From TrEMBL:
InterPro entries: PsdUridine_synth_cat_dom_sf, PsdUridine_synth_RluA-like_CS, PsdUridine_synth_RluC/D, PsdUridine_synth_RsuA/RluA, RluA_PseudoU_synthase, S4_RNA-bd_sf. It catalyses: a uridine in RNA = a pseudouridine in RNA. Residues 128-280 form the Pseudouridine synthase RsuA/RluA-like domain. Keywords: Isomerase, RNA-binding. Its EC number is 5.4.99.-. This is Pseudouridine synthase. It is an enzyme of class 5 (isomerase). It comes from Paenibacillus sedimenti.
Length: 342
């Protein structure tokens, strides 16, 4: 496959690792927000005023005393606009209880509190693209814009608008709800169109790992077919040439035993449910994938993870490569199988 020749070789291991020397790192703002974690980012750090609380008090009286040059209404406005934080946590309540030793910070600008993510972690963000790690079970993008279901798209949109109400994100590709792994969004319609138009050339590597049923005896191989969708929205390989969308999948066995095989999968095309259909085609459906013939559910989820994404940045031209670890539960089935035979 030609794409792999263009991939920058890893210089180390780790989640969300960026490969390549950035020519524009000063413009990047890389954020890693863990699930359920609140982080506060304050603009205009040079405009901060900090005060140490000496005795117990309520916040408004404390501010009226320390900001004595300002009128009462001005101080109330500063509080209401979210420009005050206590120990780095934004506070707007007038009667917030202060304790000795706490630090009260007043900023010229509004304090931005990050909204906690659920099932999403940001690996990289700059002015043009945002790369995330999505958990299994979270929908990438709602099929119906009117739906209120929590999705990766809605959460990332809320994140960018938290920093700039005019900001938007644009869909580049999707992961199935039950597939975990790396995906990205564009931050402008121009970048979206540029990447979608040049997707085959811009994306240098898309690597998945799949836990499948049975022992895959051939150490590596290529699967190709013409994919179609039936009336029940299930994809299948047509028996006729040129009947549907061409799909090509390459695989390599990483580990296997009598019950399961762990495969590294490279995509030449990115069709809907492509990997899932092709694994069924060779008689080794992905575990937990009842829709495509699986009868085993050893890990309680679909055994598919988008592990690596490498692409040419649409503006800077540099190659960015992101790699995550193989989910531990994918590997645990082999240890459990070994222990059971002892």
């Amino acid at each position: 496959m030609n794409k792999r020749k263009n991939t920058i070789k890893p210089q180390g291991k780790g989640k969300g690792q960026i490969q390549g020397n950035s020519r524009n790192q000063n413009r990047d703002k890389v954020m890693s927000n863990s699930q359920g974690q609140n982080q506060s980012h304050i603009k205009g750090q040079s405009q901060l005023k900090q005060f140490t609380v000496q005795e117990a008090s309520e916040l408004l009286p404390f501010l009226l005393q320390t900001l004595s040059s300002l009128g009462r209404n001005s101080v109330k406005s500063i509080l209401a606009r979210g420009q005050v934080s206590v120990n780095d946590k934004p506070v707007t309540a007038y009667n917030y209880k202060l304790e000795p030793g706490q630090t009260v910070t007043v900023s010229k600008d509004k304090v931005i509190e990050e909204v906690p993510f659920v099932g999403v972690k940001i690996l990289h963000e700059d002015e043009d693209v945002i790369v995330i790690l999505k958990d299994a079970g979270l929908l990438s993008v709602a099929a119906n814009p009117q739906e209120n279901e929590l999705t990766a798209y809605r959460q990332v949109m809320a994140h960018v608008r938290n920093h700039d109400p005019k900001s938007r994100i644009f869909v580049l590709h999707r992961l199935d709800r039950d597939t975990s792994g790396i995906m990205m969004f564009a931050k402008s319609e121009k970048v979206q169109q540029l990447l979608q138009t040049t997707w085959q050339e811009s994306v240098k590597e898309r690597t998945y790992v799949a836990l499948v049923e049975g022992t895959v005896k051939k150490p590596e191989g290529k699967i190709s077919s013409w994919l179609k969708e039936n009336k029940s929205l299930k994809m299948y390989s047509s028996p006729y040439p040129n009947d549907g969308q061409y799909a090509e999948t390459h695989y390599k066995v990483i580990q296997s035993d009598r019950s399961y095989s762990l495969l590294e999968i490279q995509l030449e095309t990115g069709r809907k449910n492509q990997i899932r259909v092709h694994m069924q085609d060779i008689g080794h459906p992905i575990v937990g994938d009842k829709k495509y013939g699986s009868k085993a559910k050893p890990i309680g989820r679909l055994g598919l993870h988008a592990r690596v994404l490498a692409f040419v940045h649409p503006v800077t031209g540099e190659v960015l490569r992101f790699e995550t670890e193989i989910p531990k539960m994918f590997l645990r089935v082999f240890r459990d199988s070994t222990d059971a035979r002892k």
